[in-house]
Here is the input.
Amino acid sequence: MPDDAKTAAAPTTVKKFLEAGKKRLSLSLVAGESGLDRQIREPAINRPGLALAGFYKFFPVKRIQVVGHAEFSYYMSLPEDLRRERMERLFATRVPCIVYSRRRKPDDAACALANKYSVPLLRTQMITGPFANAATIIMEELTAPRARIHATMMEVAGMGILIEGPPGIGKSETALGLIKHGYALVADDCTEVRRNGDGSLVGSAVPLTRFYMEMRGLGIIHVPSIFGAASVRGEKKVDLVVTLKRQSECGDEIDRTGENVLYRTFLGVDVPQVVVPVAPGRDLVNFVETVAQEFSLRLSGQIAHIDLDERIKRRNVQLAQ
Here is the structure.
């Protein structure tokens, strides 16, 4: 199947990193506010110990720089004039931003240089190693290729299910029925997907419409206010695509045995697909629920059509004896 979402990683700025890390990384802005729109072009984190010692060959200028305990102790051990000279050279490279870890407080000279060169100076309470690991994860999330898909996403039987189809075919109504069966909404009508570094596809709602649904004839509803906090999820890995089609349009796509596995491709990731014919009176809620449960069994190694085929072969052998 053709790729239904083009790979596109949006530029990540220091402002986005700061917003994402305020709670998760205990980040705060100390100086250099005018540089918050500076782009971070590489998601990895660097500790500029060699740079503070004056060695700039192979210096990764496109990365976030983290001043940890070792770097800070060395910097503070220098004479005041040399200290300012080394720090100014670091800021003059126009790195995206500099983060002081372990609650270290930047001195007045560093703050002045941050404002002079418009390089944000940040501070965190975290220990350097855990901070670098957590910051790398956030940067991978921020720089991951993303796309928006016209589909409703649910968590059903532990599976992340994208429900797609033309307007008015019953996506939201099916999702509502699944919520009443005890499952959870991830996104209604418009799902944002991102491709992680491990090749997995993760779906979430557009922030503005998160946890809201549009019901024809009723209007907009806020799902957790009606069904409780357990009825929604922030994000979920995309495991399966359920495509709703009018029965007259399905053609040869209807699978009667389960042998033919279709795929949909988003951001270069192939996701198994099931085409569901929609006809008057058909219970789509129970059908989609069963599809999710069946694919969950397949992931555990239990495949119904293979089991049945083996039983038929054994039976034929017995009859031939």
